[in-house]
Amino acid sequence: MKIMVLNGPNLGRLDIRDSSIYGKMDFAQLSAMITTEGQRLGFVTDIRQTNSESEMIEWLHEAADSAVPVIINPAAFTHYSYAIRDAADMLKAPLIEVHLSNTMAREEFRHTSVISGVASGTIAGFGPASYTLALSALSGLLKK
Ligand code: DQA
User: Fold this and answer.
1) Which domains does the chain show, CATH number per domain?
2) Which of 9, 35, 39, 122 has the lowest tally of Cβ within 10 angstroms?
3) Whether pLDDT at 144 is above 90
4) Is the confidence at residue 20, as pLDDT, over 90?
5) Alpha helix locations (H) across 66-128?
């Protein structure tokens, strides 16, 4: 089954960002890990990253139109983008929100997610494993 793994702004530069928060893996390595774990669970993972809010919205429309499940790390959009929330709310298949860092243990502005309310669930704080946990959660949800 095809799934989309959508990543928001600055996640393409993980190797440049603060490694004490985001770890040492670069985006290519993270993508390879997601692809491998996805394959193990029977998923074909379409992994994308954008710094553009409008592109993220268009990808969510594409996922909604094709009823494809989505794992999303909306990055900073998490905290304020009602437009992405509204697009995510149109999805027909499960949506799982992921974060590498534990956003609740960071600055107060990161404690709010405008996306969580339209997601099946949220996984945060486990570094790259947040994505593999999300793949496993998605697999469980789709078997229900
Ligand atoms: C993030 C957390 C966000 O607060 C931040 O803006 C990001 C990454 C994470 O994966 O931990 O860019 O979504």
Assistant:
1) 2-143 (3.40.50.9100)
2) 39
3) no
4) no
5) 82-88
Question: Helix (H) and strand (E) counts for the chain?
Answer: 5, 5
HSE-up of residue 75 (Cα within 13 Å, Cβ side):
19
Strand partners, 3: 45
Q: What is the DSSP string of 95-136?
A: EEEEESS-GGGS-GGGG--SSGGGSSEEEESSTTHHHHHHHH
Reported pTM? 0.97
- Cα angle, residue 23 at apex, residues 19 and 25 outer, rounded to 5°: 115
Copy the structure tokens of residue 112.
């709010």
Within 6 Å (CB) of ligand 1, which residues are found?
10, 73, 75-76, 78, 99-101, 103, 110
Residue to mutate (ligand 1; options 5, 6, 99; most atoms within 8 A of CB): 99
In Å, what is the CA distance from 104 to each residue of 79, 124, 135? 12, 9, 22
Active site residues: 22, 99
